[in-house]
Amino acid sequence: MRDVVADDASYRDRIVRLIDGIVPASRLVVHGRPDLAEEIGAGVHFAARAAAVISPPGRWVSRAVHDHDELIRAEASGATTLVVGTVFETPSKPGRETLGVGGLGRLCRQANRPVYAIGGIDETNARAVVEAGAHGVAVCGAIMGAEEPAAVAARIAGIVGSTASSG
Asked: Which of 21, 57, 82, 129 is 20 to 30 A from 28, alpha carbon to alpha carbon?
Protein backbone atom coordinates (compact mmCIF):
# COMPACT_ATOMS: atom_id res chain seq x y z
CA MET A 1 0.00 0.00 0.00
CA ARG A 2 1.32 3.40 -0.94
CA ASP A 3 0.07 6.84 -0.07
CA VAL A 4 2.66 9.59 -0.34
CA VAL A 5 0.34 12.40 0.78
CA ALA A 6 -1.28 10.95 3.92
CA ASP A 7 0.05 11.86 7.33
CA ASP A 8 1.35 9.00 9.51
CA ALA A 9 -1.86 8.60 11.54
CA SER A 10 -4.12 8.53 8.46
CA TYR A 11 -1.82 6.11 6.64
CA ARG A 12 -1.73 3.74 9.62
CA ASP A 13 -5.51 3.98 10.05
CA ARG A 14 -6.14 3.09 6.39
CA ILE A 15 -3.80 0.11 6.63
CA VAL A 16 -5.41 -1.16 9.83
CA ARG A 17 -8.87 -0.87 8.23
CA LEU A 18 -7.61 -2.73 5.18
CA ILE A 19 -6.23 -5.65 7.17
CA ASP A 20 -9.33 -5.80 9.37
CA GLY A 21 -11.15 -8.48 7.43
CA ILE A 22 -10.10 -7.58 3.88
CA VAL A 23 -6.41 -8.37 3.31
CA PRO A 24 -4.33 -10.46 5.72
CA ALA A 25 -1.33 -8.45 6.95
CA SER A 26 0.99 -11.19 5.68
CA ARG A 27 -0.18 -10.39 2.11
CA LEU A 28 0.22 -6.63 2.43
CA VAL A 29 3.30 -4.63 1.50
CA VAL A 30 3.67 -1.17 3.05
CA HIS A 31 5.62 1.47 1.12
CA GLY A 32 8.66 2.90 2.91
CA ARG A 33 7.54 2.30 6.49
CA PRO A 34 9.43 -0.62 8.05
CA ASP A 35 8.24 0.42 11.53
CA LEU A 36 4.61 0.12 10.50
CA ALA A 37 5.23 -3.08 8.53
CA GLU A 38 6.81 -4.69 11.59
CA GLU A 39 4.01 -3.47 13.88
CA ILE A 40 1.25 -5.04 11.76
CA GLY A 41 3.15 -8.04 10.36
CA ALA A 42 3.32 -6.82 6.74
CA GLY A 43 6.11 -6.67 4.21
CA VAL A 44 7.82 -3.43 3.24
CA HIS A 45 8.74 -1.86 -0.11
CA PHE A 46 11.43 0.74 -0.75
CA ALA A 47 11.93 3.11 -3.65
CA ALA A 48 15.06 2.61 -5.75
CA ARG A 49 16.47 5.84 -4.35
CA ALA A 50 15.93 4.85 -0.69
CA ALA A 51 19.12 5.28 1.31
CA ALA A 52 18.83 1.95 3.11
CA VAL A 53 16.63 -1.10 3.27
CA ILE A 54 15.54 -1.91 6.80
CA SER A 55 14.24 -5.42 6.99
CA PRO A 56 11.65 -6.58 9.50
CA PRO A 57 12.80 -10.15 10.36
CA GLY A 58 11.18 -12.83 8.22
CA ARG A 59 9.18 -10.36 6.14
CA TRP A 60 8.93 -9.58 2.44
CA VAL A 61 11.29 -6.71 1.62
CA SER A 62 11.04 -5.37 -1.91
CA ARG A 63 12.86 -2.62 -3.71
CA ALA A 64 12.06 -0.80 -6.93
CA VAL A 65 14.40 -1.47 -9.85
CA HIS A 66 14.52 0.36 -13.19
CA ASP A 67 17.88 -0.74 -14.60
CA HIS A 68 20.86 -3.06 -14.10
CA ASP A 69 22.70 -0.77 -11.66
CA GLU A 70 19.63 -0.49 -9.44
CA LEU A 71 19.21 -4.27 -9.59
CA ILE A 72 22.76 -4.75 -8.26
CA ARG A 73 22.17 -2.19 -5.47
CA ALA A 74 18.80 -3.71 -4.54
CA GLU A 75 20.24 -7.20 -4.22
CA ALA A 76 23.22 -5.93 -2.22
CA SER A 77 20.89 -4.00 0.11
CA GLY A 78 19.14 -7.14 1.31
CA ALA A 79 15.91 -6.88 -0.65
CA THR A 80 14.21 -10.27 -0.86
CA THR A 81 12.15 -9.28 -3.90
CA LEU A 82 12.57 -6.87 -6.80
CA VAL A 83 9.76 -4.76 -8.27
CA VAL A 84 10.88 -4.02 -11.82
CA GLY A 85 9.42 -1.36 -14.09
CA THR A 86 8.15 0.72 -15.59
CA VAL A 87 7.30 -2.03 -18.09
CA PHE A 88 4.58 -0.28 -20.14
CA GLU A 89 3.28 3.28 -20.35
CA THR A 90 1.12 4.17 -17.38
CA PRO A 91 -0.82 7.29 -16.40
CA SER A 92 0.76 7.17 -12.92
CA LYS A 93 4.26 7.73 -14.39
CA PRO A 94 3.70 9.96 -17.43
CA GLY A 95 6.71 10.36 -19.70
CA ARG A 96 8.72 7.70 -17.90
CA GLU A 97 10.91 5.58 -20.16
CA THR A 98 9.54 2.05 -20.34
CA LEU A 99 11.42 -1.25 -20.32
CA GLY A 100 9.00 -3.19 -22.47
CA VAL A 101 8.86 -6.96 -22.27
CA GLY A 102 12.42 -7.29 -23.63
CA GLY A 103 13.96 -5.02 -20.98
CA LEU A 104 11.97 -6.75 -18.26
CA GLY A 105 13.18 -10.14 -19.50
CA ARG A 106 16.83 -9.01 -19.42
CA LEU A 107 16.51 -7.82 -15.82
CA CYS A 108 14.67 -11.00 -14.81
CA ARG A 109 17.54 -13.11 -16.20
CA GLN A 110 20.10 -10.98 -14.33
CA ALA A 111 18.22 -11.12 -11.02
CA ASN A 112 18.98 -13.50 -8.17
CA ARG A 113 15.69 -12.68 -6.46
CA PRO A 114 12.04 -13.03 -7.47
CA VAL A 115 10.92 -10.23 -9.80
CA TYR A 116 7.49 -8.63 -9.89
CA ALA A 117 6.67 -6.46 -12.90
CA ILE A 118 5.04 -3.05 -12.47
CA GLY A 119 3.86 -0.29 -14.78
CA GLY A 120 0.92 -0.49 -17.15
CA ILE A 121 0.16 -4.14 -16.37
CA ASP A 122 -3.36 -5.24 -17.30
CA GLU A 123 -5.28 -8.22 -18.67
CA THR A 124 -3.80 -7.77 -22.15
CA ASN A 125 -0.14 -8.01 -21.15
CA ALA A 126 0.07 -9.87 -17.81
CA ARG A 127 0.81 -13.18 -19.58
CA ALA A 128 3.71 -11.64 -21.53
CA VAL A 129 5.45 -10.28 -18.43
CA VAL A 130 5.27 -13.64 -16.66
CA GLU A 131 6.52 -15.38 -19.82
CA ALA A 132 9.43 -12.87 -19.81
CA GLY A 133 10.44 -14.16 -16.37
CA ALA A 134 8.48 -12.16 -13.79
CA HIS A 135 7.23 -14.17 -10.82
CA GLY A 136 4.17 -11.96 -10.64
CA VAL A 137 2.78 -8.50 -11.21
CA ALA A 138 1.96 -5.35 -9.28
CA VAL A 139 -1.16 -3.71 -10.64
CA CYS A 140 -2.89 -0.46 -9.75
CA GLY A 141 -4.47 1.42 -12.67
CA ALA A 142 -6.14 -1.55 -14.35
CA ILE A 143 -7.86 -2.46 -11.09
CA MET A 144 -8.54 0.96 -9.59
CA GLY A 145 -9.93 2.27 -12.90
CA ALA A 146 -12.24 -0.68 -13.48
CA GLU A 147 -15.99 -0.69 -12.95
CA GLU A 148 -15.59 -4.08 -11.27
CA PRO A 149 -12.13 -4.00 -9.67
CA ALA A 150 -12.46 -7.35 -7.89
CA ALA A 151 -13.33 -9.09 -11.15
CA VAL A 152 -10.38 -7.51 -12.98
CA ALA A 153 -8.03 -8.42 -10.12
CA ALA A 154 -9.30 -12.00 -10.19
CA ARG A 155 -8.83 -12.28 -13.94
CA ILE A 156 -5.27 -10.90 -13.79
CA ALA A 157 -4.47 -13.23 -10.89
CA GLY A 158 -5.81 -16.14 -12.96
CA ILE A 159 -3.67 -15.17 -15.96
CA VAL A 160 -0.55 -14.84 -13.84
CA GLY A 161 -1.23 -18.06 -11.94
CA SER A 162 -1.92 -20.15 -15.04
CA THR A 163 1.06 -18.73 -16.90
CA ALA A 164 3.45 -19.25 -13.98
CA SER A 165 2.28 -22.83 -13.43
CA SER A 166 2.59 -23.74 -17.11
CA GLY A 167 6.08 -22.20 -17.47
From this structure: 129
* Closest alpha carbon to 53 in 72, 39, 74: 74
Residue 131 has pLDDT above 90, yes or no: yes
Percent of the residues in the chain that have a pLDDT greater than 90, as a whole number? 43
- Helix/strand/coil (H/E/C) assignment for every residue in the chain: CCCCCCCHHHHHHHHHHHHCCCCCHHHCEEECCHHHHHHHCCEEEECCCCCCCCCCCCCCEEEEECCHHHHHHHHHCCCCEEEECCCCCCCCCCCCCCCHHHHHHHHHHHCCCCEEEECCCCCCCHHHHHHCCCCEEECCHHHHCCCCHHHHHHHHHHHHHHHHHHC
Q: Cis omega before residue 124 (within 30°)?
A: no
Q: What are phi and psi of 62, to 5 degrees?
A: -110, 160
The percentage of residues in the chain with a pLDDT greater than 70, rounded to a whole number, is 90
The length of the chain is 167
Ramachandran category for residue 147: left, alpha or beta (phi over 0 → left; psi -120 to 50 → alpha) = alpha
Q: What is the pTM of this model?
A: 0.85
